[in-house]
Every structure is written in C-alpha cells, then in structure tokens.
Amino acid sequence: MAAEVLSAAGVGVTIYDRMPSVGRKLLMAGRGGLNLTHSEPLAQFCKRYGGASERLAPVLEAFPPKALIAWAEGLGQPTFVGTSGRVFPRAMKASPLLRAWLKRLGSKGVAIRARHDWRGWDESGDLIFARDTGEIVRARPSATVLALGGASWPKLGSTGAWSKILSARGVDVRAFRPSNCGFKVAWSETFRTRFEGAPLKSIAVSFGGRTVRGEALITRQGIEGGAIYALSADLRDAIAAQGTATVEIDLRPEFTEAQIAAKLERQRSDQSLSNLLRKAINLPPVAINLLREAHGASLAADAPELARQVKSAGVILTGTQPMERAISTAGGIALDALDEGLMLRALPGVYATGEMLDWEAPTGGYLLQATFATAVVAARALLQRLEG
Ligand SMILES: Cc1cc2nc3c(=O)[nH]c(=O)nc-3n(C[C@H](O)[C@H](O)[C@H](O)COP(=O)(O)OP(=O)(O)OC[C@H]3O[C@@H](n4cnc5c(N)ncnc54)[C@H](O)[C@@H]3O)c2cc1C
Q: How many helices, marked H, and strands, marked E, lie in the chain?
C-alpha cells in the first residue's frame, strides 16, 4: 500500500520480499473470507486497538474504512457489509484483488524483487538482501518503508526475524505474543477424540466481564474460533499472570436460564440426560459433552440447576496455542519508537508499517485496516520528507 501511494506520486519504488511471491498472508486471509474492514462508526472502530487506540486514531482517520472500501472497489472488487457489520469483497477471496493490484503497481513502474531476504544494513548504510542462491544484493534507496509483518504463520513469510536487526539499531522492539489465537484445554481423551474439529455454533463466551457471541471450534489441543479470538488478548494476559484462565460458555445464549429450565421441565423425566438436552433445547452432541467436561459428576439432574449449567460451562484454558497458528501477533516496534509519520526515531528515513508495530486488535477487519492505514500514513510522510 505504501508502494501504491508513492508510485502514484511519481516516486520510483522497488518492493523486496523474502518469499517467491508477495502478499501470501493476504491470500491466506482470504481463504476464510477476506474481512477487509468494518462498517461501524469510526470513533467506535478506533477503540478496537486497546492500549494503541489513541495513537492509531489519527492514522485510521487519515485512511478510514471508507477509503479502504473505495480503494478495493477502484480495483474492480465491489464490497458488501456482512452480518455483524464486517466488510468483505464480493468475491470473498483475496486473489482477484491482489491480481488487479499487482497489475496496477506494475503499470506505475513498481518493481518487485521476490526471494530477497532483508538482512539489515551494511557498514556503508546499504540495505542488504540475501538470495536463496547465496548471492548478496545491496540497495541504497532515498528512503525505506519496512512492512515485514508480525511473527504468526511464518511459512507465509513473516518470521519476525527483523526484530533482532532493528533492536541492534536501538529500536525498542517488544516481544511477540500470539493474538487472535487458540488456547490449550486439557480435554478428556474421549472428548478430544470424538469432537476434535467440531464447531460450537451460536454460543456466547464470557471472560473478565466481557461477553462475545459467535462460534468456537474444538481442537485436539484445546479451543479456537471467533468468539475465543475476540477475548484472546485478555485471556493470554490472564494466563501469563495466573497460569490459567476460565471462560464461561453459554451454550444457548438465545434463551434465559428460566426459559431453558421450563423447556427441560416440559420433557419426560425418565429419559437420558443427552436425550433431554437434545429434545428440550436442541443441544448438539459436542455441546452436551462439553457440559460433561465442564461439570463432570456434578452435572445436575434437576431442571433449574441444569439450566444454570447450560448457561455457564466453565472451560479452563491452560496456555496459548503456538504463535505459528495465531491469526496475528501482539508485540513488535513500540509505537513511541516512531514519529507521527511512522518514521523510526532511531533511523531517520526508515518507516515501519502494519503488523510490525506493537498494536493488536480482534478479528473483524481491524487488522488489515490498520495495516493499510499505517502504510498510507508512512508513505505520505515519506513523500513530504522527499519533497523537503
Ligand atoms: C489465517 C489468517 C486469516 C486472516 N484473516 C484476516 C481477515 O480476514 N481480516 C483482517 O483484517 N486480517 C486478517 N488476518 C491478518 C492479516 O492478514 C495481517 O494482519 C496482515 O497481513 C498484516 O500485513 P503486513 O503487511 O503487516 O504483514 P504480512 O502480510 O505478514 O506481510 C509481511 C511481508 O514481509 C515479508 N518479509 C518478512 N520478513 C522479511 C525479510 N526479512 N525480508 C524480506 N521480506 C520479508 C513477508 O514475506 C511478507 O510478504 C489474517 C491472518 C491469518 C494468518
């Protein structure tokens, strides 16, 4: 996106990427539906970045969701607002967008050098790139925009290896932590074997006074999915402080406890608990067995208590899933290490954008929006510097 702004202003741009092609994580993001941004009011949107919200607000105002939507549509990718306000390209995938975008960048003279792994600067100040052939390539641009990503899904290119290079140059880089990630749960062997891969649909998950409605997925090691990701920053920090965190899962959020109790009471009392829960409130096997995991021998036989348990199945999370599987990462370049135009204070003429920076946000389009917005702001500041 920085290349787009710079090339549109007539600046010569070369993009270097360590992978054989660019935009691999963007393509992966499109696999489950490319959630470009969110349609909620900007003031509310800006609050999604936790501790970084205040610092990112002017950046998001400079390139807000409506600008991102216009950009995507300008590339021939009409968008739509889905349920819950999320914005997607109608094609859902990232590939048509990326194809059209690369074509436009090419037409503006942007050169792409794939398989160039940036290794830092040499003693003369040149950028150094290592090729897989062993060859070392050097470059001395007027300015540099770093857009090297966080440290999740390293096989797509973003390994976070840049953190050592920048730390050695006096840039404050915070340790990476998984964000929008799954968590470990000590499921019983029976539950794990039977329900690995099973979705828990239309649930509500609560932690620390916050409740999120959505879906979760049982994994071999634990639990993941949208409703869990939305709470993942708080859960991760609680686990780091206390060793575990317990989420309360409401398996039937559309009914009150009293409504569930009444539905249970209306059933014949001589049937098995599983049949009762299935017939009365349509709980699928995974949810019924999750209740057993949560409440064990204390799973109630009387309707009011069972209704309470359906509304609060406690699941103990014992750790985060590895960073390699997280949607995004927290940590990276401290925002104080950057000036307003996202230039590194320790390295004049070098800008940093996207997930490299120390912010995190839930899924919902907030990750791509901030990534694009930081790139636009950095590129505009760079243009001013070049003009100056
Ligand atoms: C499965 C999945 C689904 C997602 N879905 C969504 C979604 O729907 N909506 C959303 O908003 N976000 C989503 N995200 C997050 C989003 O994709 C990222 O936040 C975004 O791609 C970050 O962009 P970036 O440019 O900062 O970094 P990246 O996209 O990670 O790009 C960094 C680039 O830098 C290159 N690079 C790294 N180190 C070097 C080096 N030393 N030398 C040369 N090149 C290097 C990499 O090869 C890579 O091409 C998803 C992420 C995943 C993993």
A: 15, 19
Query: CATH class for domain 2-179+326-387?
Result: alpha beta
Residue 117: CB within 6 Å of ligand 1? yes
Alpha carbon nearest to ligand 1 atom 51, residue: 327
- Residue 352 CB–ligand 1 contact under 6 Å: no
Task: For ligand 1, say whether the CB of 34 is within 6 Å of any of its atoms.
Answer: yes
Q: 215 and 203 in contact (C-beta within 8 Å)? A: yes
Burial class of residue 218 (count of CB atoms within 10 Å of its CB; 0-12, 13-18, 19+) = buried
More confident residue, 301 or 286: 286
Query: What does the domain layout of the chain look like in residue ranges?
Result: 2-179+326-387, 183-320
For the cut 90, the answer to whether the pLDDT of residue 155 exceeds it is yes
Q: What is the pLDDT of residues 227-274, one digit of tens each?
A: 999 999 999 999 999 999 999 999 999 999 999 999 999 988 788 899
- Residue 181 tokens, joined: 């990630």
Q: From the CA of 339, how far away is ligand 1's center (Å)?
A: 23
Q: Cβ(33)–Cβ(88) under 8 Å?
A: yes
Cβ(153) – ligand 1 distance below 6 Å: yes
pLDDT tier for residue 297 given thresholds of 50, 70 and 90: confident
Q: From the CA of 19, how far away is ligand 1's center (Å)?
A: 12
